[in-house]
Amino acid sequence: MALTLVHVNSLPAADFTAAVGDCFELAPWVAEATAAKRPFATVTALHEAMMGSLRAASREQQIAFLRGHPDLAGKAAHAGGVTPDSKREQASAGLDSLNEDEFVRFHRLNEAYKAKFGFPFMICVRRHTRDSILERFARRLANDSATEFAAALQEVFYITRLRVAAKVTGEGMPQVDGRLSTHVLDTHAGRPAAGVAVELYVWAGERMLPLATGVTNGDGRTDRPLIGGRPLPIGRYELRFAIGNHFRSRGIDSGDPPFLDIVPLRFSIAEPEGHYHVPLLCTPWSYATYRGS
Amino acid sequence: MALTLVHVNSLPAADFTAAVGDCFELAPWVAEATAAKRPFATVTALHEAMMGSLRAASREQQIAFLRGHPDLAGKAAHAGGVTPDSKREQASAGLDSLNEDEFVRFHRLNEAYKAKFGFPFMICVRRHTRDSILERFARRLANDSATEFAAALQEVFYITRLRVAAKVTGEGMPQVDGRLSTHVLDTHAGRPAAGVAVELYVWAGERMLPLATGVTNGDGRTDRPLIGGRPLPIGRYELRFAIGNHFRSRGIDSGDPPFLDIVPLRFSIAEPEGHYHVPLLCTPWSYATYRGS
Amino acid sequence: MALTLVHVNSLPAADFTAAVGDCFELAPWVAEATAAKRPFATVTALHEAMMGSLRAASREQQIAFLRGHPDLAGKAAHAGGVTPDSKREQASAGLDSLNEDEFVRFHRLNEAYKAKFGFPFMICVRRHTRDSILERFARRLANDSATEFAAALQEVFYITRLRVAAKVTGEGMPQVDGRLSTHVLDTHAGRPAAGVAVELYVWAGERMLPLATGVTNGDGRTDRPLIGGRPLPIGRYELRFAIGNHFRSRGIDSGDPPFLDIVPLRFSIAEPEGHYHVPLLCTPWSYATYRGS
Amino acid sequence: MALTLVHVNSLPAADFTAAVGDCFELAPWVAEATAAKRPFATVTALHEAMMGSLRAASREQQIAFLRGHPDLAGKAAHAGGVTPDSKREQASAGLDSLNEDEFVRFHRLNEAYKAKFGFPFMICVRRHTRDSILERFARRLANDSATEFAAALQEVFYITRLRVAAKVTGEGMPQVDGRLSTHVLDTHAGRPAAGVAVELYVWAGERMLPLATGVTNGDGRTDRPLIGGRPLPIGRYELRFAIGNHFRSRGIDSGDPPFLDIVPLRFSIAEPEGHYHVPLLCTPWSYATYRGS
Question: Which of B64, B198, C238, D260 has the greatest number of beta carbons closer than 10 A?
Fold first, then answer.
């Protein structure tokens, strides 16, 4: 259960560390160094102060902190020797269910990375898909040490921001959630298209995995966002709309088979905390989409 | 090599039958019955007169004519006991390269069809994909005899129209060819998108098979139609446009990964002799398509 | 000030008539006949019951009621011999500021109408523009008596519904307001267009009269609907968007002069209680609009 | 009547000068200086060589040449003391039919310009509308001498290119004509919209003047371009499409009045030798346009 910011502000220093210390993996000293800076006006300020404590530490302390993290999709995760937070995070991108080839691929990337930089690869997996993790892993391996050290700290920022936001509620919450929504307009009839089946897929290599389904309501929207209440994982997606059924149910003849049946919209998400509104304007003979708001 | 209509009009009756008799499978009597109606002002009129001779024949003759056709994807086709025209036509929809399951499926449909109607299933395969043939086969099996007899003659009309048009040239050719074309407009720059890779796929069951590729020229079009010079096979298709590369080459940043990369347009063709123009209007953040002209 | 439905339900009959009697022009007997049907669960039910009392009256009473209304844009309105409600309503469509020609035109229509039907022309002017009033006036003059009597009562329904909704608040308010809104999306940048000047005009004959202005906010919308909190007057409109300035401020060159500068969208409103969302999707080289939701 | 390039190449020098000398206003010496450079492989090369002769002349000769041109919309033009070419060109932008205010405005601009630069304002009026001439006039008055001298020579280039292209035909004609075309697609029906009335207007100050009308044919296009066979005058335009009538004739109800009736597309032309294709994709409830090709 989440603690209130007011409460966290008022705790004795030791209790504060006990309460939020594990937001930084195996590094309660970050919370200890931050306790005296209280009270914080916002949850965002609390998180930024903790990041400030980490940034103010010596390079040795920082490296030790990074080294305290498990390998991505590594044996430790399999065996259970990691914190529950890390475990949940890795599961969110499917890193707990890799096949043997994928496991080997991650293992090699991990070894190459640690050999080059001296600490494990950091990435905020809740902001990524398996594909984008692999892509960033390969790309960041090519960085020089200074660039990569900064990249690793930036990922620590994202990881700990999510942990703090999950643990403490109150004024000035950091923006950690994104939203993916859609809207189907029937511009043949001049009104929202109700009852249209919508499917969301995410790309994983050459395959597309089903992620969410919905049916449009009277306003042409799904009752809930297709993704919401969490960061949008960076990656490639496909939305599919059963437009052929919609026009058939309106009694419209657009050929046999109909010119449009399942309409796919293929797009990528690059801003996990953003709002992606991907609507479909359609007639039996045309359609349009755009990144809306 | 094609004969001219003028020449065909002037041939002695026996030579006329020898020249065009095989447009109607194993039924030179159709040409014989048509010879005296010459001269014809158009190739279309020649074909219609031959169809008229078939329609004027007795029901027994018509049934015999239908029975003279090979099974679709049948053993006779495999073994070679069919006319070269029939063989080429069946190959055009891939009916000469079915796997064992498909072969069995066709065999069962053929048997059920012949048991019900007393003649083999007629369909102008050059106007169809494998999927649409299977779909029509199942649908027409449910017809009553009179409806199905008319449907079979309509397919004979399509089959023989293509054969006559291939054999005789001259005034008033029947419209037997369709055209599938595309056009890519970059509405971000306000000009055609040149150099965009375009791929055309056709659906075959759950798979999509590559059918044609092209690259847009300075006017945003492919140099040749994606399909042309033949009937457009009825079926489901997907066009894919490498839009991400186009905008990347223009130096435009639309996120990492870019919002749009490969844009798929999925549509069906229902009019084999029609013109399907399926353009793409796009920016890095939006696109639209429609059946154009 | 509005009365609550609860209060209106509980008033002695005479006070009820005093409170809501003037919703029906010069016809307190309608309220008197309705008082005994109380209590009403909704304001909509109250209004419908009053209409029921009118419909249950004799034809003579109904005709007398219709005759109690002033001429549209007539001398009585000029001279002040009408109820304040009628006066405000006529002003809303500009009928209090006609020029001499228009006044004459209305006078002739009024005389022809009364000569034919025996009562003045009824129309709910708050649901109309001057143009649509003239158009309906001419059209309804051609009706037969029965059709026109029904049309007149339908307008009484609209007029009194607005009066009841203005006078009584509570559960189940009738839907009497419409909404006209817009939204500007810059599909060149993939985000809402902020700071775009928007102007709304209404057609009056050959001229367009300015009606409202706005500037889009960070979400590409105007802070308030262009028309809201009242019925949308039936008529022709034009929205104008200063798109040229928007793209110029983004430093985009689209020619000299720019291909698009002021973009006009011309449309009509036919459903006064509806929601008309008329967005603009635009790049420097293209735009699209639709009736959205 | 036009001369052929072959013929012009073969003429004695004096006859060459007599033939093409008047392409440069009152300056046969330009042709004289060019005669010895013949033969030219293309008409474009002939024109460029003549421009080269002008550019190679002394500044005094060039200034004298510029001074040989009449004032734009000046008294000389009114009185007849200018060459027929100049007269026709000025008429093409309506400069021969200015009202008194406009005449005074041009007079003041002419005087200010000559006082500052020492020669009359040069502009290729066939590439402009009255509005764009006034706009450029005011803008160029602010130039420094060197910039404006270059601008004047560029206009001489445009003026003489048109004259040479009108006088000499043959290989390698310069591109002097533009084209404005349209296309109406009914995306509700999935086919071109035939029989749609189209009107083209050009802006002149606050008014719009009718310029051309057409009706779409079976392919949704006008039989001829809306402007063609000449440069497209730089300026602001409006196309109007009678879309309401089109959908009414198809029996489609989109409200009373219909949501869309006359659809205006307002755009500017900045490239006189370009192709502007401005299509309309529409349903009864939506439309889109773009600069196409």
Answer: D260
Determine whether the interchain pair D219/B185 forms a contact, defined as Cβ–Cβ distance below 8 Å: no
The residue among A147, A239, A158 whose CA lies nearest residue A202 is A239
Distance CA D107, CA D105 (A): 5
Q: How far is C291 from chain D (nearest CA, A)?
A: 6
Both tokens of residue A200?
A: 């969301």
| Angle of CA points C245, C251, C252, to nearest 5° | 85
Question: pLDDT per residue over D137-172, tens digit each?
Answer: 999 999 999 999 999 999 999 999 999 999 999 999
Residue A70, Cα to own-chain centre: how many angstroms? 19
Q: A-side interface with B, Cβ within 8 Å? A: 132, 234-236, 255-264, 266-268, 270-271, 285-291
Residues of C in contact with D268 (CB under 8 A): 255, 257-261
What residues contact C66, with CB distance under 8 A and at least 6 apart? C119, C120, C122, C152, C156
Bridge-based pairing state of the strands D3-4 and D168-169: parallel
Place of tokens 């066009």: B239
Cα torsion B43, B47, B48, B53: sign = positive
Chain centroid to CA A130: 11
pLDDT(D92) > 90: no
Residues of D in contact with A285 (CB under 8 A): 187-190
Select from A263, A285, A290 the Cβ nearest to the Cβ of B266: A263
Q: Catalytic residue positions of B?
A: 69
State the best of D185, D283, D287 to mutate against chain A, taking most chain A CBs within 10 Å.
D283
Question: A260 and B271 in contact by Cβ < 8 A?
Answer: no
Sequence-distant (6+) residues with CB within 8 A of C206 are none
Which residues of C are less than 8 Å from B189 in CB distance?
285
Q: Which candidate, B236, B164, B235, places its Cα nearest to that of B2?
A: B164
Chain B residues interacting with chain C (CB cutoff of 8 angstroms):
187-190, 254, 259, 281, 283-286, 288
Spatial distance between the Cα atoms of B203 and B237, rounded to a whole number of angstroms: 6
Confidence of residue B131 (pLDDT cuts 50, 70, 90): very high
Tokens matching residue D87: 């007269």
Q: E strand or H helix at A67, and its extent? A: helix A59-67
pLDDT digits (tens, 9 = 90+) for B22-50: 999 999 999 999 999 999 999 999 999 99
Radius of gyration of chain D (CA): 23
Question: Which chains contact C through at least 3 pairs of Cβ atoms less than 8 Å apart?
Answer: A, B, D
Q: In angstroms, rounded to a whole number, what is the distance separating the alpha carbons of residues A143 and B113? A: 67
Q: Quick one: DSSP state of residue B126?
A: G
Determine whether the interchain pair C281/A290 forms a contact, defined as Cβ–Cβ distance below 8 Å: yes
Give just the sign of the alpha carbon dihedral A83, A88, A93, A99: positive
